[in-house]
């Protein structure tokens, strides 16, 4: 199956939902793909100083402006779209990524492993590593940024049947892009990491985001990698069915050869 997947790398504006939604609408207008991945917190930026700031950009997953816009684009362009946003829930705010499908189905993943000061402002995700269908029934698993540091994230998604790991990110450490090569290879899945760019300042705080969004094949091949600080869209055609093959040699499989009785993973 030919399946067109896209990363849309850009620099969100801190605390500015209106501008970010305009940017997303402008960028997606030209993209022809079956599955599009946008960065973590693409709607609102990342470097928060107060809970009030986070609350002010948090959105209801059913009725927020972001989900309404993305639903519109998804149905008009007939594509699945994944984007990061601050999810308003009854018990607090989650750092989430939403999958929106052209048939109207959607799913919000809540980031499991919070990074650094995110712990001050967001609740730890409780959705687990569920796998959902995107356009044409392709099975996708969502994880967000720092989830990469824990191999259990990608492994759980792969064991749950993900063919493509979709990975919105706001990366600041230098290792993820390389680490994801191993995540793809050890699980024999495609992975799409969509990072943001730019230096974001808020008062005394600033963070530089590393760009280099990428699409990786099931053997860790870099199918495309974007620049470090460019607004950039990259599109690749993949065959998601390749991710159903877990064979390393005719004697070895990355799933069947696991010796779970030997490992100590607690
Ligand atoms: C990160 O998890 N945003 C580094």
Describe it.
The protein is α/β, with parallel strands linked by helices. Helix content is 22%, strand content 31%. A 6-stranded mixed β-sheet has the order 5-4-3-2-1-14. Strands 6-7-8-9-12-13 form a 6-stranded mixed β-sheet, with helices on one face. The longest helix has 13 residues, at 17-29. The radius of gyration is 17 Å and the shape is globular. Bound molecules: acetamide. Residues 40, 115, 145-146, 170-172 line the site of acetamide. Acetamide (ACM) is lined by residues 40, 115, 145-146, 170-172.
Features:
266 residues, alpha/beta, six-stranded mixed β-sheet, 6 helices, 22% helix, binds acetamide
Strand order of the largest sheet: 5-4-3-2-1-14
The residue fraction in helices comes out at 10-25%
> What's the rounded overall pLDDT mean?
98
What does the largest sheet look like? 6 strands, mixed
Strand content: 25-35%
- Low-pLDDT runs of 5+ residues are none
**Shape, please?**
globular
Q: Bound small molecules, which ones? A: acetamide
- The number of helical runs is 6
Termini gap: 39 Å
Look at the helices and sheets and give the structural class.
alpha/beta
Short description:
Helices cover 22% and strands 31% of the residues. The protein is of the alpha/beta class and 266 residues long.
Layout of helices and strands, plus pairs?
Layout: E1 3-9, H1 17-29, E2 35-37, H2 51-57, H3 65-77, E3 80-89, E4 92-100, E5 106-110, H4 118-121, E6 131-133, E7 139-142, H5 151-159, E8 164-168, H6 176-187, E9 190-194, E10 197-202, E11 205-210, E12 214-216, E13 222-225, E14 232-238, E15 247-249, E16 252-253
Parallel strand pairs: 1-2, 2-3, 7-8, 8-9
Antiparallel strand pairs: 1-14, 3-4, 4-5, 6-7, 9-12, 10-11, 12-13, 15-16
Helix pairs in contact: 1-3, 5-6
The structure holds acetamide (ACM).
């Amino acid at each position: 199956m030919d399946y067109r997947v896209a990363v849309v790398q850009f620099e969100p504006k801190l605390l500015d939902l209106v501008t970010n939604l305009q940017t997303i609408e402008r960028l997606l207008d030209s993209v022809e793909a079956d599955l599009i991945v946008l960065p973590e917190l693409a709607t609102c930026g990342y470097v928060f100083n107060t809970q009030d700031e986070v609350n002010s950009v948090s959105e209801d997953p059913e009725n927020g402006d972001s989900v309404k816009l993305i639903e519109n684009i998804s149905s008009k362009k007939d594509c699945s779209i994944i984007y990061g946003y601050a999810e308003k829930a009854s018990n607090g705010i989650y750092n989430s990524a939403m999958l929106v499908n052209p048939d109207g189905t959607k799913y919000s993943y809540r980031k499991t492993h919070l990074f650094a000061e995110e712990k001050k402002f967001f609740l730890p995700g409780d959705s687990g590593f569920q796998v959902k269908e995107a356009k044409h029934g392709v099975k996708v698993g969502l994880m967000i940024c720092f989830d990469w540091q824990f191999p259990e994230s990608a492994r759980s998604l792969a064991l749950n049947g993900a063919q493509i790991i979709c990975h919105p990110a706001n990366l600041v450490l230098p290792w993820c892009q390389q680490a994801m090569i191993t995540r793809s290879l050890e699980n024999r899945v495609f992975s799409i990491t969509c990072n943001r760019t730019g230096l974001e300042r808020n008062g005394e705080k600033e963070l530089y985001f590393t760009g280099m969004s990428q699409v990786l094949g099931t053997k860790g091949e870099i199918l495309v990698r974007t620049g470090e600080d460019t607004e950039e869209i990259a599109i690749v055609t993949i065959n998601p069915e390749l991710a159903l093959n877990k064979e390393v040699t005719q004697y070895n499989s990355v799933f069947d050869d696991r010796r779970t009785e030997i490992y100590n993973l607690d």
